[in-house]
Amino acid sequence: MEFRDLKTQYQKYRHEIDGAIQKVLEKADFVSGAEIRILEERLAEYVGVKHCISCANGTEAMTLVLMAWGIEKDDAIFVPDFTFFSTGEVVSLRGATPIFVDVDPHTFNIDTIKLEKAIQRVIKKGELKPKAIIPVDLFGLPADHNEIGRIAEKYNLLVLEDAAQGFGGSINGQKAGSFGHAATTSFFPAKPLGCYGDGGAIFTNDDQLASLLNSYKVHGKGINKYDNVRIGLNSRLDTIQAAVLNVKLTVFIEHELEDINKIYRLYNKKLAGAVGIPVMPTGYYSSFAQYTIKLNNKSERDALKTKLSEHKIPSMIYYSKPMHRQEAFNNREYDESDYQVVNQLCDTVLSLPMHPYLSEEEIDEVCSLILNR
Ligand SMILES: *Cc1c(COP(=O)(O)O)cnc(C)c1O
Predict the structure, then answer these.
(1) What is the pLDDT of residue 178?
(2) How far does residue 26's CA lie from ligand 1's centre (Å)?
(3) Quick check: CB of 200 below 6 Å from ligand 1?
(4) How many whole angstroms from 59 Cα to the centroid of ligand 1?
(5) Is residue 162 in contact with ligand 1, taking CB distance under 6 Å?
(6) DSSP of 56-101, one letter per residue?
(7) Are strands 349-352 and 174-175 parallel, antiparallel or unpaired?
């Protein structure tokens, strides 16, 4: 069994994917080829925003936005404590300070009450300038963007939606990638929409930001890349990756997103009552980058992981360490009482095999091992 099955997907769409790659090889326009523009237009339309700017990966997508916003030393950026390292890394890379905020025990997303308290504390202390919030759509479920938007407006903060895992999710029909002042996603192979290497994109309705980002991602270009008006990066998506994504976006929209939600419902039906199952608040739709259950304690979780692996069923612990406990962030003091939920989640969560090509028999096999512990 595969944790995320990229091989079956390739076998099913081999003809289309090979053809799309072949076309780029024949034209030899490996950088900034026609497929890039086509992909960006399709992605912007799907997400429902004016601009999509493709780039090298999801981490640089966030870095580019922080660069364009002029985030620097002495700025405070509010980030959930339960996420992939990148979300905090990009803040520190700019010399700013990530303020880690505890998460909601049910949705796993940033706790908006604790977020507001954290903002007020930074203001009161007066050492750092609150500048932005980076909510994460963890495991595919959009964060509480309505409440985050209200808080951002109240404290005059920018919002960067980290939709690396969230592409395809929505709240009352509004798609992930369209919340906040800018949003980013990742096309790392295992993400909801993945390419065959690294890739990423930025979404925004802000014309001025879009034009800045198009400059920052190509060496701070002015008229062209030999006219350089600012210090930037080399952060482009390869044409071959865009060609692969153009095929995969079609099948993602046609059936993959619906199929993975069917699998979510099957899992939930079988596991309800036996373990903590993922929740989707009313009006929310998830792209299920992960299907993550909760056990009662660490020894139960670790025992289940071992049992599954004895039966050759892969499972993963996303995440085993909160951000505030990463060695890279140990330059600051943290009060553990601020992180009670995340500390417990890291000991009790387990992500099960989850992808659109999982069969009912496979789901049965995983669930019967969990139910007959
Ligand atoms: C994967 C991921 C990223 C980074 O994306 P890359 O394309 O791997 O750089 C950022 N944030 C979250 C929440 C992620 O899961």
Answers:
(1) 98
(2) 32
(3) yes
(4) 6
(5) yes
(6) S-HHHHHHHHHHHTT--TTEEEEEESSS-THHHHHHHHTT-EEEEE
(7) unpaired
Q: What is the pLDDT of residues 143-159, one digit of tens each?
A: 999 999 999 999 999 99
Reported as a single tens digit per residue, the pLDDT across 295-332 is: 999 999 999 999 999 999 999 999 999 999 999 999 99
Cβ atoms of 298 and 347 within 8 Å: the answer is yes
CB of 75 sitting under 6 A from ligand 1: no
Residue ranges in the chain assigned as alpha helix (H): 6-27, 34-47, 58-68, 86-93, 112-125, 145-154, 207-216, 239-251, 257-271, 298-310, 340-348, 360-371
Of the candidates 217, 219, 181, the residue with the CA atom closest to the CA atom of residue 199: 217
The CATH classification number of 6-101+108-247 equals 3.40.640.10
Ligand 1 binding pocket includes 137 (Cβ within 6 Å): no
CB-ligand 1 contact for 136 (6 Å cutoff): yes
Using a 10 angstrom Cβ sphere, with 0-12 exposed, 13-18 middle and 19 or more buried, the burial of residue 331 is: exposed
Nearest by Cα to 97 from 58, 128, 70: 128
pLDDT, residue 193, reads 98
Q: Is residue 77 within 8 Å of residue 100, measured between CB atoms? A: no
Task: Give 186 Cα–ligand 1 centroid separation in angstroms.
Answer: 6
3-state secondary structure 205-264: CCHHHHHHHHHHCECCECCCCCCECCCCCECCCEHHHHHHHHHHHHHHHHHHHHHHHHHH
pLDDT at 215: 98
Determine the average pLDDT of the residues in 234-246: 98
Q: Do domains 6-101+108-247 and 253-371 have the same CATH topology?
A: no
Q: Where are the domains of the chain?
A: 6-101+108-247, 253-371
CB atoms closer than 10 angstroms to residue 261: 18
CATH number for the domain running over 253-371: 3.90.1150.10
Q: Which residues contact 120 (CB under 8 A, 6 or more apart)?
A: none
